[in-house]
Amino acid sequence: MPDKLHKTKGIVLRVVKYGETSLIITLFTELFGIQSYLVNGVRTSSKKGSGKANLFQPAAILDLVVYHNELKNLQRIKEFKWNYIYRHILSDVRKNTVALFMIELLTKCLKQPEANPELYEFTEDSLLHLDNSTGLVAANFPLFFALNLAGFFGLRINDSYSEKNSILDLQEGGFVKDKPSHPYFIEEREAKITSDILKVMQPEELEQVQLNHDFRRNLLLAYERYYALHIQEFGTVRSLPVLSEILR
Fold first, then answer.
1. Residue 227: which CATH number?
2. pTM passes above 0.85
3. Final residue in a domain of this structure, among 85, 110, 127
4. Which has the closest alpha carbon to 37: 45, 51, 55?
5. Which of the residues in the chain have pLDDT under 70?
């Protein structure tokens, strides 16, 4: 079966050096979902390769022309260019750390190379919102992204919070009245804020969610636990300790 050419957008998830001058890029593509590509000659100092490796940074959004063959694990890229040039994400330490957390979380959830255009659109839209966001929105964005991303994998938390049902059972994925027998739950203000963020329709509304550093960190750890309980071999999010330090 010959390789066919396709135009697609893609978000860079991971970059690994290969040989002297090449890269293996893992991309979340709009057309094919998660895919790996071999890109030759982009790490050379020649005129042809100069600067091209800079496009392949985690969270970069690219326009691509790719060869695709479903029988192959490693595809090839014919053409690539920026789809969107970030104003802040690649240069602002805070926003870059948030973006890397988002990309790592997404990568841990993507198991199969299948198209999911709604998830692609959500991820791209989230990165654009983050790039253009102000202080509090950016600080709360990891919470918003983590809670909403879960829904694309059948894990959306059922927001039935009330004064009666004020405990979030992380194992069951919903709010309950009584403390569960296991230790995987949050309560009081942590549960209430989770419910508030689940109600947020537009990221700009995150400006209203006033949280301190320790509170935000504890919520992120709870959401990491939620993913670990529901996604096989999830492990831990390596970018989370750095994110917790940055979001002061």
1. 1.20.1440.120
2. yes
3. 85
4. 55
5. 1-2, 45-51, 248
